[in-house]
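anyone seen this seq b4? input:
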Amino acid sequence: MLTIIVFILILSLLIFVHELGHFITAKKVGIVVEEFGIGYPPRAVKVWQDEGKITLDGQEMVIGRKTKVPRDLQTGATVIVETKLRPDGRMETVKIEAIKQDEDDDGEAEGAVKIDALEKPTEYSLNWIPFGGYVKMLGEEDPTAPGSFASKSKRARFTVLVAGATMNLITAVILFTIMFMTGQPEPVGPTYVIEVVPNSPADQAGIQPNDVIVNVDGIAIEAAQDLVDYVDTRRGERITLTLLQGDTEREVNLIPRVNPPFGEGSMGVGIHTQYTQLLVVDVSPGLPADAAGLQAKDIILAADGVVIESPGMMYQYLEIKDGQPVTLSVLRDEQVFDTVIQPQPLGADHPTLEQLAMAGLSEQEIPALGLRVKPEILGQRITQLPFGQALMTSVNATASIIIQTITIPVAVLKKVIPAEQARPVGPVGIYRITDSAVEVSREENKIYPLLFLAAILSTALAVTNLLPLPALDGGRILFIIVEAIRGKRISPEKEGAIHFFGLTLLLMLMVVISFYDVSDPIDVSGMFR
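predicted toks r here
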């Protein structure tokens, strides 16, 4: 039940701000907005209306906020109005009654007058379908109606159309900023020395490759950046490192250099933090992993002493070994043991490093060993950023999602990533992702998974709506571009028919995507962990 509520709230928020963008810019450029509602029609209740304008016999009058305006009222209609004088000296209509021709046998009812010009007030409503928002602009495909969307300049129409996506991008930045300020998870793990520069302070202190840096001056090192940041503030000063080599712990002292040689660093070490370990998910009977005694839930720590953190690292090492036996160090029930495994040939169709990297924390097959593995995060900490840094990080995160969304089709065509990993999701898939976010949020008692999800969806909604497809904002923008090139507008009838056809195709595509979301759901288990 909680997932359903969160699902509706997130989608409603994102659609609402999208429509709000259209609404605000439409009002700014002088387009008559007949209605702005929360949720989709049918209407539940009219909450309020702002002021409108009506011109009768050459006199412009104000349509009051409480004046009921017939919904089908148009310029040229015959009406009877009641008016009052406002304190500012302007006339205000307090009642408007439309007169039908068959109600006036003599041709003109007493006091009846025709409307010379009409700018209806915007009605603000609550609607029955609780998703997002609803904007009704006058004459979206009728350029003959004064104040209509279609009657405005190309620049005005472009501004209104792009405003929805712009609002979604702004919303994504705001959501990311809140997430980074309130706290978001950062992976942590042991930081290893992978290289020691000869005659450097680290070499002189006796630091060796494969040493684990536990702490510096009593401050725990949970990631490589922790050490870099601390040492940068202590250049030229004596520091004490606590190191771990196997089961042996020792302390060393050194003085980081103030002006080290280029590329060596102040200490003279290369370091790397291990954030994940390789969890065995399944073992295929009769294949090398089974013969070596591996079981599901085993953790592969190393291959021939080389730490293995991910499927990509395992593939890289198997390529180096080229079919030779490999000694795996395995953790099972808190006990470490070694086992020798004879890999099968990798074959030409094994995944590339790019494909494995795109898979993230998803499960991956390693056919050469006959097992399925999954990277498992060793640990996390919650990091909070100050506003300025959070804002800049949020802008970068939003831009990164936009770039990834645009470049993924190219990556699929180049076979950098498999099409399965780039498959779009529909409402069913989004619901499953929401369920995963809600589950992690409840387990960790943190809001960041929901903020992260909402920010990603908001960015995706912006990019999707700007695609040059009929019925989408991007499709309508494409018509404006064509109009600018041709110097002539495509007829509203043709444009409307194309958008209707495009909408039909999009609905059919949504049905197909939803079918695959149900029949072959994507793995979302590691998305928020």
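The first strand starts at residue 33 and ends at 49. The mean pLDDT is 89. kinda curious what u guys think
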